[in-house]
Design a protein that fits this description.
The protein is built from 20 helices and no strands. With about 425 residues, it is mainly alpha-helical. Helix 11 runs antiparallel to helix 12, helix 14 packs across helix 16 and helix 18 packs antiparallel against helix 19. The N terminus is likely disordered.
């Protein structure tokens, strides 16, 4: 099995077992001639593991800075949990709806994608409502209007009618509510992405790179209300989403030799170490003297809004090493110690919304009760336990109470936030 097989969970043509080859023969071979889909099988636990890890990291990063925040990956390199989320979103969405397009055609697949977009949109509106109520209640009860300003809802209190309309148009968002609008826009573009990949997947990825470059060259962006722009520019972040889709539809398999090369491994390691050394200068000012001025002028600012190329390549380096050293068959994925992460990752839409709510609740407790390291650690641990508990309840419900779940388990098993049930 090659490195790429570990990514896609598939085997190279000619090495599949007879029992695995039979279902593939039943699919219409001419529907998607340019792409290759992995066989339907058991859930890809690595995707759930890292998606769950991203959820936990996002929750901790949304709390006020403390000792525990030093354990999140954003302090040790250029990228953070957002890149993990977007890549897995593109990968799983392409896996699920690429297969739907293969089996049912473009119109049916598009209808299913739009249905999922609507679900994510409703979740965003619901979260927006709860978040506003939570902040308003705390600010009023404790007579502290700074909460409304800090969380970015002051404009709502001044002009609620206009602000609600802008929120429904995804142009107004309080603090920490920028991820779901980004997903909505990317998912709306998914039918076009999949149709283009049906034509030429490599050309589609190249066009994505061109759009990314044009966005940087001409400073393209989505405007926000009342002023400014989206915290995550979809015109730039689409590159990571499309790259994830490209990997799912055969790109990872075609990169097998590159991924398996020792040269790739050492380049990735060197880049990660270099990124770590640069981030050290952010927290230890004395080390900044070792940074060449020309390098600083070229490198900074490392823009998250437009997915700086340094962030993108840092994620690629991490992904390359992960694929190499964490195979799909790794026994640790069955470990009960990783079960909480996998459970949260398998229900990421619900857990993400819960995490945003818990992050502000934790922020409030730290501000009003105690902001010490012990309280911060306790709140972080309690939040993670609540997220795990809710994920376990959802998993139980879907397994026991949802009678239709068994019929669609294989079809939507890996999608969740990006495009599944």
């Amino acid at each position: 099995m090659t490195i790429a097989d570990q990514v896609t969970g598939s085997t190279i043509a000619g090495t599949a077992k007879p029992a695995e080859a039979k279902p593939r023969a039943a699919a219409p071979a001419t529907s998607l001639p340019a792409i290759s889909l992995p066989a339907i099988g058991e859930r890809e636990l690595r995707l759930d593991l890292f998606r769950g890890l991203a959820l936990w990291l996002i929750f901790i990063d949304h709390l006020p800075p403390s000792l525990l925040t030093w354990f999140t990956i954003r302090n040790y390199g250029f990228s953070d949990a957002t890149e993990i989320f977007i890549f897995i979103s593109g990968y799983t969405a392409a896996f699920v709806y690429g297969r739907a397009m293969l089996e049912s055609g473009f119109l049916i697949a598009t209808a299913r994608i739009l249905r999922r977009v609507w679900q994510i949109y409703v979740a965003h509106v619901f979260l927006f409502t709860i978040f506003l109520a939570e902040i308003s209640y705390v600010a009023t009860s404790f007579e502290n209007p700074l909460y409304t300003e800090e969380m970015g809802i002051m404009d709502f209190l001044k002009q609620p009618d206009v602000t609600i309309v802008q929120a429904l148009l995804l142009r107004f968002r309080p603090v920490n509510m920028d991820v779901l609008p980004l997903y909505i826009v990317l998912m709306l573009a998914l039918p076009l992405i999949l149709y283009s990949m049906k034509w030429k997947p490599d050309v589609t990825l190249a066009l994505s790179v061109v759009l990314y470059a044009v966005t940087w060259e001409f400073d393209l962006y989505f405007s926000a209300y009342p002023n400014g722009f989206w915290a995550f520019n979809p015109l730039a972040w689409q590159l990571l989403f499309v790259f994830g889709a490209w990997c799912a539809l055969g790109g990872a398999r075609r990169m097998s030799r590159i991924l398996a090369s020792p040269v790739t491994m050492w380049i990735a390691m060197a880049y990660i170490v270099a990124a770590f050394c640069v981030t050290l200068t952010w927290y230890v000012p004395q080390l900044s003297h070792f940074m060449p001025k020309r390098l600083e002028q070229w490198m900074y600012p490392i823009d998250k809004t437009d997915l700086d190329v340094l962030r993108f390549t840092h994620f690629l380096a991490l992904a390359a090493l992960t694929v190499r050293f964490l195979p799909r068959e790794w026994p640790g994925l069955k470990s009960p110690w990783l079960r909480p992460l996998i459970l949260c990752g398998s229900h990421s839409l619900e857990i993400f919304c819960l995490g945003v709510f818990l992050a502000f609740a934790g922020h409030f407790i730290l501000a009003e009760v105690s902001g010490g390291a012990v309280m911060h650690a306790l709140i972080s641990l309690c939040g993670i336990l609540i997220m795990w508990g809710v994920a376990a309840v959802i998993s139980w419900y879907k397994r026991v109470a949802d009678k239709s779940g068994a019929k669609t388990k294989n079809a939507v098993g890996n999608a969740d936030l990006a495009g599944g049930g």
